[in-house]
Amino acid sequence: MIEEQDPQPDDQESSDGYRPPVETMKYGQIDRELREVFGVSVMYLLVPIFLLVTGSISVVASRWFLRVLPGAAAVFVAYWILLRAFAPMYDASPEMANRYSLLISRIAGGIMSTSHSRLAALYDRREELKDLEHVN
After folding, report:
1. Residues 108, 103: Cα–Cα separation, whole Å
2. For position 92, what pLDDT does the model report?
3. Structural contact between residues 53 and 74, judged by C-beta atoms closer than 8 angstroms
4. Is residue 50 within 8 Å of 122, Cβ to Cβ?
5. What are the φ and ψ backbone dihedral angles of 123, each rounded to 5 degrees?
6. Mean pLDDT for each consecutive 10-residue tract of the chain (136 residues)?
7. Cα 109 from Cα 136, distance rounded (Å)
8. Where is this region: Disordered (predicted)?
9. For the chain, how big is the Rg over CA atoms in Å?
10. Could you give the CA distance from residue 89 to residue 42 in angstroms, rounded to a whole number?
């Protein structure tokens, strides 16, 4: 017989189970997590791309389908480009990429399952370890 379970509360998942505390992480671990978060935060650019294309097309087209289809196509093309471009963008300027991720995180209230406070702590710890590396 199947027993009913109590519903779980609707709060965000705790990152304690699968992610180490920021204070114990090494530079490589922090850089890897920041790179992954930047990859997701770059995808937030798809929203203004869709709105820009849809808005510019709506001036010309009158039917809903004709307005949304080019915007959806632009999103798929931009997604493909951004998916391949985020790693070189991060490598070219990690500080700028991390500041962008912090901005998006602040605006959106976090990026996926990474809260803004964890992202800020990761960025601060990265800077701290980077300074220690340059001193030695």
Report:
1. 9
2. 92
3. yes
4. no
5. -65, -45
6. 54 58 87 90 88 75 72 87 88 90 88 86 89 73
7. 36
8. 1-22
9. 20
10. 10
